[in-house]
Write a structure and sequence with these properties.
The complex is a heterodimer of chains A (397) and B (193). Chain A has helices spanning 3-12, 17-29, 31-48, 51-54, 58-67, 83-109, 119-122, 167-175, 193-207; strands spanning 133-138, 153-163, 181-184, 221-231, 235-246, 263-270, 275-285, 288-294, 297-303, 306-316, 326-337, 344-359, 362-377, 380-396. Chain A is α+β, with helices and mostly antiparallel strands and 397 residues long. In chain A, α2 (17-29) crosses α3 (31-48). Chain A is elongated. The longest helix of chain B has 34 residues, at 159-192. The chains are: A alpha+beta (397), B mainly alpha (193).
Chain lengths: 397, 193
């Protein structure tokens, strides 16, 4: 068979193994055949780049749907949806995040300070280990300076246990390694919380940290086991979601991250009482519309770039404006898409909103978010932007 | 939002469309998304006149919606091309004259600056220089990726004949492009030095 035909059949995908061997042997021996081969490949490549042929005019599409009595949904399917349908992704993701945060907080972070951590270790002493009382104290009482420093929070967790023999006291101390203090108290001390706290403060000033007080050596006495952790609330983690609207028209119709688009996780560190810096990771979508020229024809391009963006952010949250559990905040951030490094960057000049703190250490954040994407397509930069509502749930520790 | 019609094959979609009920529109849209590009490519390159090509393209899909029936049209893609071809030949009675090969040299000389984009453009314009018989099979196979079986049914020829005709169409194109290709190669070599 002629080599021209073999080249043709090879590119066309209709060649047997034996013919393929014959073709490549011929190509190896003859440079002019190789030139012909390249020429045919170029021709095929040119056909596949013929965008004009493969792109129906928008008006043709609209005409077809119009003549068939359809709603013209083919070019840009714009479905009129209700509020929930439009924002279902953000609502579901936010509620899911908030629920997850609540569960985790209740399980691990003890928002009300009711420590029951020692139960398992204490059972060998008694089957009646009542937890007595818990409390949380904000040690920083200098309210005039509150905006300048981060308040330190100390959470005390303690239990009242009864041991029958003095020898068990030592065992108690060694078996509860996180126990900082073991105080002798009488049952009468438990009558009021004030008395208990006074006793506790007195013991701490006398013995300092890690000094268990194991006296007196009574054969039967009551002991007060105290563990405490210092929490300054400098760190916080937030989970959230968002619903966005494209500022320059169009509708985001992401090809990726459809289920959890515009979800984010952020970590913050308070450098002062009012100012926090943080890092933010989010999966997000944009919509972008621009014009370009191909083969002397001008095209209107629409695309939905999908990014995983890591941003650095600064949040200002003036405590002086705090009203009850609500504190206003503003935030700015800048980031880069980590799955397309060098392709562009994202700036969020402002998120304005509020922090709602219904429980200790646990918070909700709601805000209006504005975001600009600078995106490089080949050699050109394009800009698109969006604004939306951010809903987050988080906790401090 | 996921399009649940994506999971249906062509025949199932044709069946939904033929019922002309509330689901027909979405089923039609799905088939339109699947085949509008290749059908448009056929109309655009075979008809030649771009406005007329758009008319043929529109008429094809409208007729398809009106007449599609999954019982009779087992191959939806081929059916679309059959309609397109019929619409084309019914409405384009005055065939656009093709340029003879003798004119190719002047045509090529219009190109002064050589780069890849012009190379692509030249290939595309050269397709218009093919006679209708070769142009049609070239577009069906190269642009629309129709199988030889579908092509043979559409053109009422044997599969072997379809293969040979497509090969000859490409040979014609190569003949048209050869002088340009050689010049392109020479210039490229000079530029590299």
């Amino acid at each position: 068979m002629e080599t021209d035909r073999l080249i043709h059949d090879y590119i066309d995908g209709n060649i047997s193994e034996g013919q393929e061997d014959e073709l490549f042997n011929n190509l190896a021996e003859d440079s002019s055949l190789r030139a012909d081969f390249k020429q045919q490949l170029k021709m095929t490549s040119a056909v596949h780049k013929d965008l004009t042929a493969y792109t129906p005019r928008a008006e043709s599409t609209l005409n077809i749907f119009d003549k068939l009595g359809f709603a013209g949904a083919a070019v840009a399917p714009v479905v009129q949806k209700g509020f929930f349908a439009r924002n279902s992704s953000a609502i579901i993701s936010s509620v899911t995040s908030a629920a997850a945060a609540v569960v985790l907080t209740l399980l691990f972070l003890d928002p009300w300070g009711n420590s029951v951590h020692l139960d398992g270790q204490m059972n060998k002493f008694t089957n009646n280990v009542p937890w007595v009382k818990s409390n949380a104290i904000n040690n920083n009482s200098n309210n005039s300076n509150i905006a300048q420093s981060v308040p330190e929070k100390i959470v005390y967790k303690y239990k009242y246990v009864y041991v029958n023999e003095n020898s068990q006291v030592g065992e108690l101390a060694s078996s509860v390694p996180e126990t900082k203090y073991i105080y002798e108290v009488s049952k009468s001390d438990l009558a009021t919380n004030e008395m208990l706290m006074s006793r506790l403060a007195n013991e701490k000033s006398n013995y300092g940290s890690l000094q268990p007080n194991l006296s007196p050596a009574n054969s039967a006495c009551d002991y007060f086991v105290d563990t405490y952790t210092i929490k300054d609330g400098r760190f916080s983690v937030e989970f959230g979601g968002a619903g966005y609207y494209v500022v320059n028209g169009g509708t985001m119709n992401p090809s990726q991250y459809q289920a959890m688009n515009n979800m984010n996780i952020a970590a913050y560190y308070k450098v002062t009482g009012d100012l926090a810096v943080g890092m933010d990771y989010r999966r997000e979508n944009y919509y972008e519309k621009f014009q370009g020229t191909e083969l002397s024809s001008t095209y209107q391009y629409e695309q939905n770039p999908n990014f995983q963006v890591v941003s650095l952010s600064a949040r200002y949250e003036p405590k002086s404006l705090q009203f009850g559990m609500i504190t206003p905040l503003v935030e700015a951030s800048a980031g880069i898409p980590i799955n397309h490094i060098g392709a562009g960057y994202v700036i969020r000049p402002i998120m304005a909103g509020i922090e709602i703190k219904p429980f200790k250490d646990f918070k909700f954040v709601a805000g209006i978010d504005y975001s600009i994407l600078y995106y490089k397509q080949q050699t050109n930069y394009f800009t698109t932007n969006k604004f939306g509502v951010q809903l987050r749930a988080g906790w401090e520790f | 939002m996921k399009n649940r019609y994506k999971k249906y094959d062509d025949l199932e979609l044709a069946g939904i469309i033929s019922q002309k009920n509330g689901e027909s529109e979405l089923a039609f849209k799905e088939l339109y998304d699947r085949y509008s590009a290749v059908v448009h490519a056929y109309c655009y390159r075979v008809v030649g006149d771009y406005d007329q090509a758009e008319d043929v393209f529109q008429e094809t899909f409208i007729k398809f919606y009106q007449y599609v029936d999954n019982r009779d049209n087992a191959n939806v893609k081929a059916y679309l091309f059959k309609i397109a071809r019929n619409v084309h030949y019914n409405t384009m009675r005055n065939k656009k004259p093709t340029i003879d090969l003798e004119n190719v040299e002047n045509f090529i000389q219009d190109y002064v600056s050589y780069d890849q984009q012009e190379m692509n453009e030249l290939v595309l314009k050269s397709i218009n220089l093919l006679n209708d018989e070769y142009k049609e099979i070239f577009v069906m196979r190269e642009y629309s990726d129709l199988s030889y079986r579908d092509i043979s049914e559409l053109l009422q020829i044997s599969e072997d004949n379809a293969k040979t005709r497509f090969f000859r169409a490409k040979q014609k194109l190569m003949t048209i492009l050869k002088p340009y290709m050689q010049e392109y190669k020479t210039i490229s070599l000079k530029e590299r030095r």
